[in-house]
Amino acid sequence: MEKEQKDNDSGEGVAKSTTVPFSVKGVPERARSAEWWRTVEPLWVTATRHNLTTALFNFYRCEAPWVSGDQFCVPAPPAPPPDARTLTPHLHHALDLLQGGGYSLALVWASGGLGGSRGGNIGGSDKDDMGGVGAAWRAVDVSLLDLQHALHDRGVANQTHVIVITNPEDASPPTPHHVTGSGQLREEQASPSPSTSTSSFGSLYALGPMFRAGEEVRRYTTPTDIYHLLRIALHLPPAPYPANHTTTHLQDFLVPSPSCCGRLLGVDSWLGAAGMLWWWWCGKLM
Predict the structure, then answer these.
(1) What is the distance between the alpha carbons of residues 37 and 31, in angstroms, rounded to a whole number?
(2) N or C end: fewer C-beta atoms under 10 angstroms in the chain?
(3) What tens digit of pLDDT does each residue of 43-84 get?
(4) pTM score above 0.85
């Protein structure tokens, strides 16, 4: 960020981030289509346009992959975008639990999302929606920067990771290759629209020692990529190869809570040296 956030109550006093800015270079050939840009915008481009400084990664599925069975699903209707005042208390509550429980990772599932691409308000043509979506991205960014400031104040910034997952109605990138029932790849669509795509994407914000540099999304990411990020944060062994985009590798150390609504579940890592906090946030953000 070029300046500290002073325009939001929960963003006051947030230190400047040293995160490397996102880049829009290396745009895939298919994304050069004018039609594609009128219907959808990748989250890393959105992050660049709104000057977000927290690490951002794309993923897909409209619910946790170990809940959906790793099946494609249709995104839910857009939810009202959250604001920093809503997010910050929950993130700080996660921090309190981390510090008190000796965990090394907080994983927050935000089922409200940040608005929906199917409503045309992320990279869409409805200009009236863009201001609200931009404010939503900024609110999340402010909240995570505030959390980073709090982590430093508590002296745990170097050993704590916080990951926030939002609903996949946030964005819908171009449809990737799909495999037919016979195992053959279907023809790639040059300019698919969100209304015809069976893929659903969301966003994964990562804050912590392993994620401060930021990353640029250059390919389609999957639940196994989420596993890879969590594996890095928890210092776990590599996933067995091939991954095949199944839920097995996530379930090795992520056990779903028997009830959402904020139930907590700590699981020892394979190495026995790191733990994790699974915070299932099942309510709307507003």
Answers:
(1) 7
(2) C
(3) 344 445 555 555 444 443 334 333 444 443 333 333 344 556
(4) no
Return all residues near 268 (Cβ < 8 A) that are at least 6 apart: 275
pLDDT tens profile 11-26: 333 333 333 333 334 4
Q: What is the 3-state secondary structure (H, E, C) of the chain?
A: CCCCCCCCHHHCCCCCCCCCCCCCCCCCHHHHCHHHHHHCCCHHHHHHHCCCCCEEEEEECCCCHHHHCCCCCCCCCCCCCCCHHHHHHHHHHHHHHHHHHCCCEEEEEECCCCCCHHHCCCCCCCHHHHHHHHHHHHHHHHHHHHHHHHHHHCCCCCCCEEEEEEEEEEECCCCCCCECCCCCECCCCCCCCCCCCCCCEEEEEEECCCCCCCCCCCCCCCHHHHHHHHHHHHCCCCCCCCCCCCCHHHHCCCCCCCCCCCCEEEEECCCCCCEEEEEEECCCCC
| Residues counted in the chain | 286
Q: Which amino acid is at 286?
A: M
